[in-house]
Design a protein that fits this description.
Blueprint (H helix, E strand, L loop, with lengths): L11 H48 L1 H16 L4 H25 L1 H7 L6 H25 L3 H25 L3 H11 L1 H10 L16 H32 L2 H19 L2 H12 L4 H25 L1 H8 L11 H23 L5 H19 L2 H27 L12
Helix pairs in contact: 1-5, 1-6, 1-9, 1-10, 1-11, 2-3, 2-5, 2-9, 2-11, 3-5, 4-5, 5-6, 5-7, 5-8, 6-7, 6-8, 9-10, 9-14, 9-15, 10-14, 11-12, 11-14, 12-14, 14-16, 15-16
Length: about 425
């Protein structure tokens, strides 16, 4: 049976470089979609789009749970890779249907919270959750088997169609509905790429040899999703607070600043994708965690200084002169981005070693942000409150993670399959 590291895309630096480039293009395209939306829609309408994208990120939690479960199970027990693949791909369609139906039921509440003029943008986001979830199962299989070339193509298909369609749709109709339609149609592309990449079963074990019962896989997906939900609520709760507590114009400025936050958060995500299989293996998890923290620390210094020294350039990418009032605080939004990226690495490290204590700390952080954000009363006050909570979480979770991965080597407990 071919090693997953060599199934396609190569190993080592070549595989890492390939997935890094693919994710960079995807994230630049995703960022470009937000820039185009900000420029063509203006602060008020773009504030609604930012809120809807935050809602979609929350809906993406099961997708990430599927991806993490598939990647972890394959990395931890390569002998049963085909069984995991079949189980995950089968479950992904069922989970996708449940998520879309639940999101559709929630559309009136979403429209009320985001003060939307129509239900249609929220409906489109709910429908987009379906292909997004299916893509998660496909990406998890490819990631666990370290098939970087196929995974890279999937990520490219996730970003580029959204940008192209977004430019066309929003230019024709500068509304949140058009922007969300571009997101929905664009998400069909990565599902098609994943289907082609996984059209033939992997050679090796018998199709059902070592297959875990669906309920156990679902239990792990649910557990991982709860951890990731906590992180994504933490990541996106501030835009919801801004929409409810700040005036429409200031909330739009805050959403513009978050473009920088998202850009910095997206920039080093390939580190997490490449390192997660290693963080799931007992022998390599400590080295992988330390390496990831060092890369993110260096990235954070560069991005934060860039946001401070090159704020006029950053403002161009945020949306131009309409967002000039937030220019002097773009460095703060860059700092928020790298803090979130570090928290994401720590969350995935916890998932890799099947430790879920971080969930409670992150939910506590969400509660503090909600209280502090409701009291902040200004753009700077809200950003500073979020940054302070994120920084405390980074310190605490880093200390916990390093303590756990530095314990004396012992035989890891094999998760029940």
């Amino acid at each position: 049976m071919p090693s997953p590291a060599t199934t396609d895309g190569g190993t080592g630096l070549r595989g890492s470089a390939g997935i890094a480039v693919a994710m960079l293009v995807m994230n630049v395209a995703t960022y470009g979609f937000q820039v185009v939306s900000a420029r063509l829609l203006g602060p008020a309408e773009y504030g609604a789009v930012a809120g809807l994208m935050a809602f979609l990120l929350v809906l993406s939690v099961p997708q990430l749970g599927l991806q993490a479960t598939a990647a972890r199970r394959i990395a931890a027990d390569d002998d049963h890779a085909q069984a995991v693949e079949r189980s995950i791909l089968r479950l992904s369609y069922g989970v996708a249907l449940v998520i879309s139906l639940a999101a559709l039921a929630a559309t009136p509440l979403v429209a009320h919270l985001l003060r939307l003029d129509s239900l249609w943008p929220a409906v489109l986001v709910a429908l987009a959750a379906g292909p997004l979830t299916v893509m998660g199962g496909q990406a998890g299989v490819l990631q666990g088997e370290r098939r970087w070339r196929s995974l890279g193509l999937l990520y490219l298909a996730m970003g580029l169609p959204r940008l192209v369609l977004g430019c066309v749709f929003v230019a024709v109709s500068p509304t949140a509905t058009a922007a969300m339609l571009a997101v929905l149609v664009g998400l069909l592309a990565p599902v098609a790429v994943g289907t082609v990449a996984l059209r033939r079963p992997r050679a090796g074990t018998e199709p059902d040899a070592g297959a875990a019962p669906a309920r156990r896989v679902l239990a792990e997906i649910a557990t991982s999703s709860v951890v990731l939900l906590a992180f994504f609520v933490l990541q996106n709760v501030d835009i919801l607070i801004a929409r409810r507590t700040l005036d429409e114009h200031t909330a739009g400025l805050y959403a513009g600043g978050l473009i920088v936050t998202k850009a910095v958060l997206f920039l080093p995500q390939f580190v997490i994708v490449v390192l997660f299989p290693s963080m799931s293996a007992h022998a390599s998890r400590r080295a992988a965690l330390v390496r990831g923290l060092l890369v993110l620390a260096g990235t954070g210094v560069v991005c934060t200084l860039g946001g401070y020294l090159l704020s006029p350039v950053a403002l161009v990418f945020v949306g131009g002169a309409e967002y000039a009032e937030v220019e002097t605080r773009l460095w703060l939004f860059a700092l928020l981005g790298i803090l979130l990226a570090t928290l994401q690495l720590l969350v995935y490290s916890a998932l890799g070693r099947q430790s879920h204590r971080s969930t409670y700390l992150i939910w506590a952080g969400v509660a503090v942000i909600v209280v502090a954000g409701m009291l902040a009363g200004s753009l700077t006050g809200l950003a500073a409150a979020v940054g302070a909570v994120d920084a405390v979480l980074v310190v605490v979770l880093t200390a916990l993670a390093l303590r756990e991965v530095s314990r004396p080597d012992r035989e890891p407990v094999t998760p029940e399959r």
